[in-house]
Write a structure and sequence with these properties.
Elements: H1 2-35, H2 40-64, H3 79-104, H4 107-114, H5 122-156, H6 160-178, H7 184-208, H8 211-233
Helix pairs in contact: 1-2, 1-5, 1-6, 2-5, 3-7, 3-8, 5-6, 5-7, 5-8, 6-7, 7-8
Length: about 240
């Protein structure tokens, strides 16, 4: 009995440690950049935390858990479902902005946020959008859907608890960041949307066990967000 239980407890402790070490990285970056306003240090921390978020899960998977690397290619399809989900989320985002735009964020406020980074210049904003859609969102799916959701599966079991808990973790650093730029009501609405997005992304990941399927939905939803951002900053 003990020989069976002890490895299970060790696996759970190992999963919890990996979960905590990875999950804190985005919050560290946000706090350094926005709460402490650390300037050049914040830029360094941003790069280091991105490297941490990419490197630690791979190291943990291969070296700590002794598992084989994987490209997370979908074995059961899911592209159509993901695409439809992404478009559906995009439509909801646009409708929410049309109805509640001033509660979420105003163009003047967004320009003030982005100007210190040079992102009010169209070509720099375009590069930033490319980064967030094709690099950062892939990294988020890799971290939050594959690694964190998988670790939560080991810790709490089942399907919906890992989905809901991973969505909560996904929302936390976004909520902290938004608190510096929009009022509490707007932050609450935006955070609710982020949480629902996290639930949907985690659900589709667990359905198809591929970060790429989840990324398609995430990327399409991001396109809707950045179309709105472009309209506010540059205009059409």
């Amino acid at each position: 009995m003990n020989a069976f239980v002890q490895p299970t407890m060790n696996n759970k402790k190992r999963a919890l440690m990996g979960l905590v070490l990875v999950a804190i990285a985005p919050t560290i970056s946000v706090v350094t950049g926005f709460a402490l306003k650390a300037g050049a240090l914040a830029a360094v921390v941003f790069v280091l935390t991105k490297m941490w978020m990419f490197g630690l899960p791979a190291f943990w998977h291969i070296k700590i858990e002794g598992l084989q690397p994987s490209y997370s290619l979908p074995q059961s399809g899911g592209w159509k479902v993901s695409t439809l989900l992404g478009f559906g989320m995009g439509v909801v985002i646009v409708i929410a902005y049309l109805l509640l735009g001033d509660l979420l964020i105003r163009g003047e406020d967004l320009k003030e946020i982005l100007e210190p980074f040079g992102l009010t210049i169209p070509w720099k904003l375009a590069l930033g959008i490319f980064f967030w859609i094709f690099i950062n969102s892939v990294l988020e799916e890799y971290v939050f859907r594959w690694f964190i959701t998988s670790k939560l599966e080991q810790l709490v079991g089942g399907k919906w608890w890992p989905i809901l808990l991973s969505a909560c973790i996904f929302t936390v650093h976004h909520t902290i960041a938004l608190a510096f730029f929009i009022d509490p009501l707007g932050n609450a609405l935006a955070s609710l949307g982020i949480f629902i997005g996290g639930v949907l992304f985690s659900w589709i990941y667990l359905q198809y066990r591929s970060v790429w399927v989840a990324w398609v939905a995430h990327a399409i939803a991001d396109v809707a967000i950045f179309v709105i951002a472009w309209q506010l900053i540059v205009g059409f």
